[in-house]
Known about the structure:
The complex is a heterotrimer of chains A (409), B (160) and C (172). With 409 residues, chain A is mainly alpha-helical.
Amino acid sequence: MFQQTEVTLDELRHLVSDRALTGETVLLNMGPQHPSTHGVLRLLLELDGETVINCIPDIGFLHTGIEKNMEAKTYEKAAVMTDRLDYLNTIGNNLVYCLAIEKLAGLDVPPRAEAIRVILTELQRISSHLVWLGTHALDMAAMSTFLYCFREREMILDIMEMCSGQRMMTTYFRPGGLWRDIPVGFETAVRQFIRMFPARIDQYEALLTKNPIFLDRTKHIGVISADEAIRWGLTGPSLRGSGPDYDIRKVTPYSGYEQYEFEVPTATGGDVYARYFVRMEEMRQSLRIIQQALDKLPFGPVRSNNRKYAPPPRAELGVSMEAVIHHFKLWTEGFSLPKGAVYMPVESPRGELGVYLESDGGPKPQRVHYRTPSFVHLQALPLLSKGHLVADLVAIIGSVDIVLGDADR
Amino acid sequence: MGVEQKLGNMGIATLKLEEVINWSRTNAMWPMLFGLACCAIEMMAAQASNYDLSRFGMELMRASPRQADLMIVAGRVSRKMAPVLRRLYDQMPDPKWVIAMGDCASCGGVFNNYAIVQGVDEVVPVDVYVAGCPPRPEALIHGIITLHEKVKGEKVKDWA
Amino acid sequence: MESLNSVIQILKDRFDAQICEFCGDLSLMVAPGQLLDAVRTLRDEFGFDMLSSETASDYWPEVSPRFHVVYNFNSLKGRRRLSLRVPVDGANPVIPTIEPIFPNANWHEREIWDMFGIRFEGHSDMRRLLMPYDWEGHPLRKDYPLGYEEPQFSFNFDDIAKRKHRGGYEEA
């Protein structure tokens, strides 16, 4: 069971150049246990000296069987699994899953729940970008940025914990709204964060943006043109770093994103630096969205009133027989969705996060497929890294911002 | 260790060699940088500013198993990863310890399916299990201190 | 630019496709033989320039068709999406690859091969992607067991310990 089987060179014959067979170039294994691959990614590199000739990614070391496991659970219970896919964007995974269910069921979400969803999703985007920035800078030997980024990330995690009781795996979004309303003190905490944070972004930028070492390591590295990026399916900051201003929040707004004013930052370089620039700018835009959403946070319920999908509040259980029946049905059998399939995309910190949800009319999904940005971006890694040095490969991996849980599922 | 009280004027203390060895082992334990999944992010948080793991002499995460004596299995272990994990464990020099961080590493957690090894103890012997999904950094630190307690009680002979 | 409905109408007439509409998502059912032409038409004539996702769904115990392969195309300029569904027979699941048209179908198709055992004809690198190389079976098929392992409690501890596979590791 625990014997490792290796592929032979013959099986990879079509992926490496002829020079690898004669020994003129070196085949080097990188990972799956490597500090700079951002998880358990394994790369087989064909090197000519220090130059990368070919790069063959090997994924699946974190394959968790989440899609299969979700098929064995009811819709609501399966939501717990979604958090663990992309563990830097847990709230976003919940969001896209809930949106898909709501689309399939035609379920309405109260405006207050939508606004809170936007606030938390944007906070999560900032926290994900902070982890990215910290590790990306760490890969290029800027240790202090890592420490600063995690300091601010803790503040966001505190807000998450305040709402849901968990720092990372919140499962706070449920089909039809939220688990429960935000606690007292939430607004103060978020306002304090958005007041403090712009200065902190300036601090990171002071460390990196004009730092000659950082510029040397990032400018003209891992360049991809807009056409190539589209052909390879890149989305999110990786696409916007090459020029197109494609953002799903603008193109097909969900959760009331159309009410908020924000810009879609783009850059034209298409290199590691451009992607860095876009993400830094995105954090500022996220703050703008949070500010607006907080300012006009409506009052009202946070979960749909449709008792077929959302459980009745505790107080109703004592007085209404119907509520007891609904409660019992929802927590034993779960709700059924109409037969059909939907594809629901949202803009995650990494790019287009889509869920393909198919129902066969029963209480358990027939098929859940997560179209994850990391999976698609990793595929373009050979293209991005060809002709660069091994040391630059680390910068390129960091710049496409992969999460292996997201890629392997 | 309370050595200061025993030192006296001579600057000499007598104590068991075993205690000295175990003391030195606990205070400079080098964990291997072995992040698998979600828990690895909390492990990073434990090393970062707010929780500061270096208070326990453990800030030096080694990427090479040859230089590490503690393996923190942070996250779920898939069937594809299990042989790699075992190989890394075998490459670590004795004495070595393993912490299973999080529910997935301890028992498979929520993922009871074909792809995940139901507990890393099927692959390597585990000393301390840390519960949580993912455990808070405090929980990890508690797990490490628990391991220190365990190491202090070990017999040197056991590693021979 | 034509509206999405007219695109669908054109495709329907040209490829004898079936339209499924559900919750505002439009999808077209195309026969495997016409897949490549349909995809090429979508990209070249109607500006669907990105393959967003490609996945499959298993309808076991149905046999023909047992699988549906679902493609989702995205038009960045037109800001619209379209799904294609291709029925695949269960006895001999083979369909042509769209890798020459959309290079990023490569990994998607490898994943489908890995998870469903649907072979893509003409694919450049048909190896397993996520599971170990020597894995048997295709996990996301409906007739593949979930692999549930019974939790050990005190009353059934010995029972399960006996059955449990403890490979490789022996206590020193």
